Please model this.
Amino acid sequence: MPQPSFPAPADAEARRAVKPVICYPNETLPQPDVALYRAARQGASKVAEVLVPPRDAACFEVPAGHFFRISSVQGAQVGDLNLWNREDLNERFYSGKTRALHGTHITTGERMWTSFPMMRPMATIIADTLGWYGIDAFGGSVHDVIGTRCDPYTGNLLADSQYHHCCHSNLTRALADHLGLSLAEAERHVHDVLNVFMCTGFSRDTGQYFMKQSPVRPGDYLEFFAEIPLLGALSACPGGDCSAEHSSDTAACYPLLVEVFAPQEGVLAGWQSPERNGYDQSHGR
Model:
């Protein structure tokens, strides 16, 4: 951390001791009916699956009211997840607001929220086999919404590299192939991710973003309920379990499995997709 340019004032400790205030108290957030979702999941049948290759990405689609599961298979592996409204790519996952509402990492009962001006739930986590991990002694936890995704631009900035299998590029290729877009068109839609299974935090001495070996093991999974029609893209990070580096051709990497499940007809009676945000967009004019 850079050394301060000015001396601390006499009341520095008193200023530091001021208690924090939660910016967005979330007690009034609309609460998902997780019990309903779990009951509907019990009789659901698998309708699709995609195996995401190591150091690559793949797309998948989930109708509103369906479920999808991301599973670790073969070995410890983290993934970078992008989600869009399948009917309007301009509505996409908003990691910053999800972080502001729920915290740096998300788990069962918490939601992924969409971008302005829609700003509504797009997916609700209904099961997390790593929910036991909590927050460790380093301040680390799993499934973060603080890391942006490994990308070739930062790699070039820091190491003068031209690495093409980072998560940003993987997601770009996958979206381009799935929708028949050019790479330039697809890249405009790639956005900050949910880092599935990744164990991360901020160092307490310097405040830097850190990663550590993921606790994920084959058989672990994160499962979601699709609140709106979804297009997803998932990258199996080239860092593997991210115990050493996140853009690497040498780290042990494994595939990730995405499965989509359809509920039985009638079990979600009365449920409907969340409405778009009710703000009138007048902005004071």
Summary: The longest helix spans residues 167-179. The two ends are 43 Å apart (CA to CA). The mean pLDDT is 96. The chain has one domain: 47-262.
